[in-house]
Amino acid sequence: LARLIAERGRMAFPEALRILRACCAAVQYAHYHRIIHRDLKTANIMVARSGDVKVMDFGIAHEALKSISRLTRAEAWGTPPYMAPEQELGGVSAGVDLYALSVTFYEMLTGELPFKGPNYLAQKREALYAPASARVAGLPPGIDAFFQVALAPEPSRRFAAAEALAAAAERTA
User: Fold this and answer.
1) How far is CA 40 from the centre of its chain?
2) What's the pTM?
3) Residue 97 is a catalytic residue
4) Positive or negative CA dihedral for 87, 20, 55, 31?
5) For residues 134 and 136, what is the distance between their CA atoms, to the nearest angstrom?
6) Distance (Å, rounded) from C-alpha 168 to C-alpha 154?
7) 39, 52, 97, 144: which is the annotated catalytic residue?
8) To which H or E segment does residue 164 belong?
9) φ, ψ for residue 111 (rounded to 5)?
10) What is the pLDDT of residues 111-132, one digit of tens each?
11) Is the pLDDT of residue 165 over 80?
């Protein structure tokens, strides 16, 4: 996926939504089995010539021993532009994967990351990113409201599960 974005710049909404849906299904499956990926990003999503989508590289995945929804503490591993604010501070929950998928969806739609750094945590805590509709004309009218929830600084204000994230993205169309 990273290579596709590098070559094309951005994707049309239907294609990005199809890829997001496939990623959400994979992440929902992992979360059901109490596995948190912790490093979702375009480089870890493979899109085959056939169109099949695979989430790869569970190398730093975290097994949620108590509850998939409860925030636990672990070492901060991941890729800063995609990490949820709480993950940068060592928090691990299913929500960190959903946040990373939201950053990935934004990148697919705009061809750019929402947070440019270098101080990613401060930018994420203040939700300092350009609305997707300001970067790309013609996106669905509900897309900015979608990202306000998906990239909310507080985990409790975000979508609670991968299937909810995918459904909300579909509703923007």
Assistant:
1) 7
2) 0.89
3) no
4) positive
5) 6
6) 18
7) 39
8) helix 162-172
9) 80, 5
10) 999 999 899 999 999 999 999 9
11) yes
